[in-house]
Design a protein that fits this description.
- The relative contact order is 0.27.
- It is built from 2 helices and 7 strands.
- It has a single domain (8-134), classed as Nucleoside Triphosphate Pyrophosphohydrolase.
- It is globular.
- Strands 1, 2, 3, 4, 5, 6 and 7 form a 7-stranded mixed β-sheet that branches.
- The chain has 140 residues and is α+β, with helices and mostly antiparallel strands.
- Keywords: Hydrolase.
């Protein structure tokens, strides 16, 4: 019987806060750098529930998901393995506190994002900022 090596489903969340700020986490484990809160979907877990859980685990925040933004599937997006990430946009109140596998959680103004972003999160955030400016989503 052949061994199937399917991509792993993940979720990420762009958390919008007042003042045109978003939440990023500094990863405690490789690959190191700043990232959107998110992670792997557990077996039997809907994608939206996984996004809410991962945000709570990594930032301590209760996120309200507003919309499903896009699914990113480039096989090279995660250097560890092939993953698919369904990205949500959500809102939350308060200030994040890094926990679980987040060494730190902070807010950043959308015009002052850190340069050392992990995975394809630079692309995701560029797509998000273009969407906020123009209303146009990434083309397939």
């Amino acid at each position: 019987m052949p061994e199937y090596r399917n991509p792993k489903p993940t979720v990420d969340c762009i958390i919008e806060l007042s003042g045109e700020r978003i939440v990023l986490i500094r990863r405690a484990n490789p690959p190191l750098g700043w990232a959107l809160p998110g992670g792997f979907v557990d077996e039997g877990e809907p994608l939206d529930a996984a996004a809410i859980r991962e945000v709570k685990e990594e930032t301590g925040m209760d996120v309200k998901l507003v919309e499903q933004f896009f699914t990113y599937s480039d096989p090279k997006r995660d250097p560890r393995q092939h993953t698919l990430s369904t990205v949500y946009i959500g809102t939350a109140q308060g200030e994040p506190q890094g926990s679980d596998d987040a060494a730190e959680a902070r807010t950043f103004r959308v015009d002052a994002l850190p340069q050392d972003l992990c995975f394809d999160h630079g692309t995701i955030l560029a797509d998000y900022l273009a969407y906020k400016r123009t209303g146009q989503r990434r083309k397939l």
